[in-house]
Amino acid sequence: MTAARGFGRAWDRISIYLPIILMGLLALGTYWLARNTPGLAQTFGVRPPVHEPDYFLRGFSVKSFDPTGRLKNEIHGTEARHYPDTDTMEIDQPRIRSYDEKGALTIATARRAISNADASQVQLIGDAVVTREAPKVNGVAPPRLEIRGEFLHAFMDQERVKSDKPVVLKRGDDVFHADSMEYDNLERVLSCAGACRACCNRACAEHMAPLAFITGASSGIGQALAARYAQAGWRLALVARRTGEIQQWARAQGLAEDRWRVYGADVSQVESIVAAAQACIAQQGLPEVVIANAGISIGMDTEIRADLEVMARTFATNNIGLAATFHPFIAPMRARGGGALVGIASVAGIRGLPGHGAYCSSKAAVISYCETLRGELRTSGVKVVTIVPGYVDTPLTRQNRYGMPFLMKAEDFADAAFRAIGAGRSYRVIPWQMGVVAKLLRLLPDAVFDRALAGRPRKHRQGEG
Length: 465
Known about the structure:
Elements: H1 2-36, H2 40-44, E1 55-65, E2 71-83, E3 88-92, E4 95-99, E5 105-109, E6 112-115, E7 121-133, E8 145-155, E9 160-163, E10 167-171, E11 174-184, E12 189-199, H3 202-207, E13 211-215, H4 220-231, E14 235-240, H5 243-252, E15 260-264, H6 270-284, E16 289-292, H7 306-336, E17 339-344, H8 357-376, E18 382-389, E19 392-393, E20 408-409, H9 410-422, E21 427-430, H10 432-443, H11 446-452
Parallel strand pairs: 13-14, 13-16, 14-15, 16-17, 17-18, 18-21, 19-20
Antiparallel strand pairs: 1-2, 2-3, 2-4, 3-6, 4-5, 5-7, 6-7, 7-8, 8-9, 8-10, 9-11, 10-11, 11-12
């Protein structure tokens, strides 16, 4: 009885504090849940913006109108990708038509474009062209305006175009060339920077078209480059030993006689190519672009005494000839503050190939020489561009008796090279797939590289069928 009474009194005392104890336990439980329950931000957090398209358009046409129903812009393209984080549209093969309040039409084309939501700002990339056809005033049509370049930033509503790349602006018979430019059509103000030239009549405009000096132009890569530059409206200075073939080709292309000249020269002879370059400057003016393309490729075997002469002739053409091609133009280009010297190398210059000792070493030297010259001219405004072709379908490569991965047409190579030169690239492997291969070849251990080439057919030596 005594124990029962003691337990009862203890229970009475505890029960007095039981509500407080239960409230304390409930508070602890609530605290634990609050600490361990994931927050809303973790469960329903907003995904950080990423630059990924949210929809595609193919073979499309898009039109935009102002509040009155007037057509403002019309965009055509082969494919477009919309990026919600920037609210921009990336367009392949765009053709954009824009009308101002007076009905004046502006047309913009390029290989690729990046447009804002209402197409009031468009960045045109690759073979960019902006033209404007203004309506007649008192029955007279104002001069047609055309702007060309590898990059143009067009502000359609403001009728303004600017670029930090070389451009050509034509207005009627007036032609302006500049390294960079901003043109305000409303204010009729043209601002140029870098090397600038202007010509204000038709005859002068034809003469002032940019000039490309190209060696090895009678066939293959050189001829394809000549065709691409002619297509872009450039004048041509074409150099080769076989002058008759170049003249026949130029006339077959329908090129106007005053748009090109042919200079006979052997680039392996320093005085011969220097004289051709000096004649070009005297007769056509200082070129904007000089392309040292002439080269030879003959297999060799160092064990054979006669093949040492082959190596000497290869270096005389591919290396001494390249430097001699550039030599007459460096001082006047430096004085002008602009121009481009382009050396045509080869992926064969990345690693040595059995039987190609002369050609591989000569093209490796081209890459190193152009890199050296680029450093020497870095502050002069003169660009040095190294173009590294992979396998291109030319009379030279058709003699090869081994597989040629990623073989491309000479016309496709010339188009890619034209754009790389225009963009001022310092080094470009064409096609891009061979660029990846070239990087891998640099990293490949010698033992693996040698084993991979074991048994590979060698290049024809001189006199071999």
